[in-house]
Design goal:
The structure is a single chain. The chain is of the alpha/beta class. It has a domain of 136 residues: 3-Layer(aba) Sandwich (Rossmann fold). The strands form two sheets. A three-stranded antiparallel β-sheet has the order 1-2-3, with no helix packed on it. Strands 4-5-6 form a three-stranded parallel β-sheet, sandwiched between helices. The longest helix is centred in the C-terminal third of the chain and has 50 residues. Bound molecules: guanosine-5'-triphosphate (GTP). Guanosine-5'-triphosphate (GTP) binds next to loops. It is an enzyme of class 3 (hydrolase). Belongs to the small GTPase superfamily. Ras family.
Length: 200
């Protein structure tokens, strides 16, 4: 659903570049330029997509309101995330094609329930009619993603320093133990004669 023109007209986002299934763009946030990579994980979950989902900072899971199976696929992704990702990663469950309301297959209540069950945001749009609602939704999600990344990076740093602390302590305990077990060091003889020394 992401198109090159999705973000045009918005001063916070610039030049969406496409390479295979990946889109890159710059996003201005708190006066800093942030590089954002958007990965299109359709048509479904495989091992490489799963890995990407697990390390993403924010996710949009798109279903089509005229395709019951697309909501099932969305549920599979949410279940996977629930099992594998710890922490409140920002997830938006986004229904598309509201211009085809007459052909709706996905009940609103089912989606509300799903969003509630997996604690994610939810809304429905029509990319065909207008991309400005999509634009503001994406903008909010990106901001949430940046905040989430900051928390995540902070946690990794804290975990790293706890690990370093513990390993330093363990190291000093083992060093002490090995010194206690080893015979007392003999004092090295004091060499006064340098005649036989060779320089290498
Ligand atoms: N009526 C309608 N058609 C849409 C809308 N958004 C996308 N489409 C159409 O739906 C089809 C699939 O759109 P894509 O943008 O390729 O969506 P996708 O999620 O990448 O789909 P896949 O390529 O199948 O993974 C295209 O024919 C689009 O023109 C919409 O809001 N309303």
């Amino acid at each position: 659903m992401l198109k090159e023109n999705l973000f045009t007209g918005n001063d916070k986002m610039t030049a969406l570049e496409k390479s295979n299934c990946s889109y890159q763009m710059m996003f201005r946030y708190e006066d800093a330029a942030v590089k954002v990579e958007i990965l299109d994980c359709s048509p479904g979950l495989d091992s490489s997509n799963c890995r990407h989902l697990e390390v993403a900072d924010a996710l949009v899971i798109v279903y089509s309101i005229v395709d019951r199976d697309s909501l099932k696929a969305a549920k599979t992704v949410l279940e996977h995330l629930n099992k594998r990702v710890h922490g409140a990663i920002p997830v938006l469950l986004l229904g598309n094609k509201t211009d085809l309301e007459h052909a709706r297959q996905v009940a609103r209540d089912d989606v509300t329930l799903l969003a509630h069950q997996f604690k994610c945001s939810h809304c429905e749009v029509s990319a065909a009619e207008s991309f400005s609602p999509v634009n503001s939704i994406m903008q909010q999600l990106l901001e949430d993603g940046i905040q989430f990344r900051r928390t995540r990076v902070g946690q990794v740093k804290r975990r790293k320093s706890i690990f370093e602390n513990v390993s330093r302590r363990l190291g000093s305990v083992f060093r002490r133990k090995s010194l206690e077990g080893s015979p007392p060091k003999r004092k090295a003889p004091h060499v006064t004669n340098n005649i036989n020394r060779r320089s290498v």
